[in-house]
Amino acid sequence: MSWYQGEPLLDLLEKVDIDQGKQQGEFRFPVQYVNRPNLDFRGFAGTIGSGEIRVGDEIKALPSGKTSKVERIVTFDGDLPSAFAGQAVTLTLTDEIDISRGDLIVKQDARVASSNRLLADVVWMTDER
Questions:
Q1: What is the 3-state secondary structure (H, E, C) of the chain?
Q2: Is 44 within 8 Å of 68 (Cβ atoms)?
Q3: Which of 6, 22, 38, 101 could cysteine-pair with 50, CB 3.0–4.6 Å?
Q4: Which residues pair with 41 in a beta bridge?
Q5: 41-67, pLDDT tens digit by residue?
Q6: Residues 103-120 as b or e (16 or more Cβ within 10 Å = b)
Q7: For the CA atoms of 63, 64, 67, 72, what is the dihedral angle to 10 degrees?
Q8: Residue 40 buriedness (CB in 10 A; 0-12 / 13-18 / 19+)
Q9: How confident is the model at residue 4 (pLDDT cuts 50, 70, 90)?
Q10: Spatial separation of the C-alpha atoms in residues 68 and 86, rounded to whole Å
Q11: What is the pTM of this model?
């Protein structure tokens, strides 16, 4: 397009820093999978969206609001004392509370507003006019 003088879109997309600001944000852990291989283990697996978590931190599960403490941070390479944004981990808790896929784990003192509304801009690209 003759009116566009910037870099090609693909070049811009390859340079975008998607992790920018995640370390400074509050802890957010969307549960992607509940791992229960036997009666002695119940872990909540996912990728930390933002912030940091440590063994012993008090957490809250949303939307239920039930609370517990982090007992272990499990990875393929072994347990960790802490984990941060971008890491794929499994959290185990000291209490057996009901958490399901799609729930959000946050620190206990976090103030998270819930809503059933969404505002979005949809871009639809097609060959038809």
A1: CCCCCCCCHHHHHHHCCCCCCCCCCCCEEECCEEEEEECCEEEEEEECCECEEECCCEEEEECCCCEEEEEEEEECCEEECEEECCCEEEEEECCCCCCCCCCEEEECCCCCCCCCCCCCCCCCCCCCC
A2: no
A3: 22
A4: 38
A5: 999 999 999 999 999 999 999 999 999
A6: bbbbbeeeeeeeeeeeee
A7: -70
A8: exposed
A9: confident
A10: 23
A11: 0.74
Which residue is it, tokens 């509304």? 117
The burial class, CB within 10 Å (0-12 / 13-18 / 19+), for 38 is exposed
Question: What 3-state class would DSSP assign to 13?
Answer: helix
Give the tens place of pLDDT for each residue, 67-78. 999 999 999 999
Residues 6+ apart with CB under 8 A from 109: 58
Six-digit token string for 25: 């944000």
Residue 16 is which amino acid? Answer: V
- What's CA 16's distance to the chain center, in Å? 19
Q: Which residue bears the tokens 């006019």?
A: 129
Per-residue confidence (pLDDT) for residue 57, from 0 to 100: 97
